[in-house]
Write a structure and sequence with these properties.
Helices cover 0% and strands 41% of the residues. It is mainly beta. It binds zinc ion.
Amino acid sequence: MKDNIEVFPGDEVAEEEEYLASDGTFASDGKIYASQIGVLELDDDECVARVVSPNPPNILKTGDIVYAVVADVRNTMATADVVAKEGTRRGLGGETYATIHVSKISQGYTDDVSKELRKGDYIRARVTGTSPSLQLTTKDDHLGVIRSLCGTCKTELVKKGKGLYCPDCERSFQRKLADDYGDVKL
Ligand SMILES: [Zn+2]
């Protein structure tokens, strides 16, 4: 068998007499097969056969900066759907449903999530934990809301002072804004 070739799931890649099945491979009836698309690695030092995926799923880690859309706002937390990870265009694998606890929203004291985030807001956030579920924080100058539409008329809200303003409804709104609100290319 040749090394460093692209293989597909089900391709026979080695004999079990010579190699052990490892990442991306499985053994059956004395032979080793690929279980994913990737490049075959026959490791003669460890005697293992691996198939290394060129594009491993983008699983979020603690510390990652992400973009998310606020899905719901409750008393003590907001929920959000993570749509992208900063610095990569690759899609996300794994969990993308996240929670933001009221204490993790802003640097100041907040007792009301709806004063800081609203459903539909686009936010930049940092992952603070991934187990048992994805948790985010917006507690940093560069984190928070980066784009928001008026809940009444859907006009894009503009930054005014420390908050947001709808030029059509002529109303002001409070939010936890990122320092570059309105200036982010999505
Ligand atoms: Zn409006």
